[in-house]
Amino acid sequence: MKFALAVAATATLLLVPTGGGALAAESCPGNPDALGTSREVAIDPATLPRIGFMQYKEMVELQPKEVIFTFDDGPLPKTTPAVLEALRKECVKATFFIVGRMAKAYPNVLREVAAEGHSIATHSVTHPLIFPKQSFEKGKREIDDGFAIVNAILAQDGRQAAPWFRFPGLGRTNAFEKYLGERGVVSMSADFPVDDWLHRTPDQVYKIALARLEANGKGMFLLHDIQPSTVAMLPRLLRTLKERGYKVVHMVPLGTPGAEVARAETRTRVPAMPKQPVSDTVSPGMMPSLAEPVQPAPPATPSAAEQVPGPGGLLPARLNPLPPHDVVSRDLVPQRRDEMPFSVFWPSQIMYDLRAPTMR
Ligand SMILES: [Zn+2]
Fold first, then answer.
1. What distance in Å separates the CA atoms of residue 24 and residue 4, rounded to the nearest whole number?
2. Quick one: signal sequence residues (predicted)?
């Protein structure tokens, strides 16, 4: 039980959870006008076992204009350091959901992310699309080994991952959530994606991010540090948030010194997911259309030889084809229809796979 040991280590070893530390909102070196990080909130798995209005009814309580940044699928040497640099320049702290095989391939990039004071959480080993299609044993291994790989790397610097897990493709199930919950691990979704994984241009990603944030007034972003479009647009997004008076909130593990414990906010409606900017004028052709046949992008494969230059930069060379629908185990697909507002923004293939059988 590698995973049980990893979790038990929280209480017994002197490992320091990632994230936390001194806030730099008031004094950001070299950037007196930085966006900064306004406050830290510690996540208590007992009161917030599932987080993110995209899929759940609970979220970290945020004040109007407060934003949480999360980045998935890294680390990747060609993109993650640039994301770190953009965050560093603005003294913004975020959470990174690490893919085990990526961490194994690029352990030093993971260590760098943690050393910057960002929170580290996990996102499986191989990023199976879609998680519910795994057998329960395989799924457990994806979860347990993901934590084991990441913690083995972080332990070199006396650190440890936060007990938070994000399902690849957000493919949650009751059974896996229960498994995580029993181990004190938070199932962490988000409030809105920015579609950077659909290979949009940086300008498109920027506008979608801003439109969705402004439509909701606050919330948790889901971005990908392996996407060139995110790398390109992030400095501009952070600047705009500063200009418009937004504040960044950093999630940290429970027990982080000086961090207030996050309160839960309960959802009264699903997040708004505009495809059009609410405050910018943009030609309709610039905005993504979900009618187009898009293929979800899995995380890039670890080997540099498997990377190919794409129109926006580095793209994964191989796209994991989704298995045929008839292999979906009916009792493993998400059940809660009201918690799966994917139809608003998710590509049709993913939508089909995630919908409850009764919706098909
Ligand atoms: Zn992912």
1. 35
2. 1-24
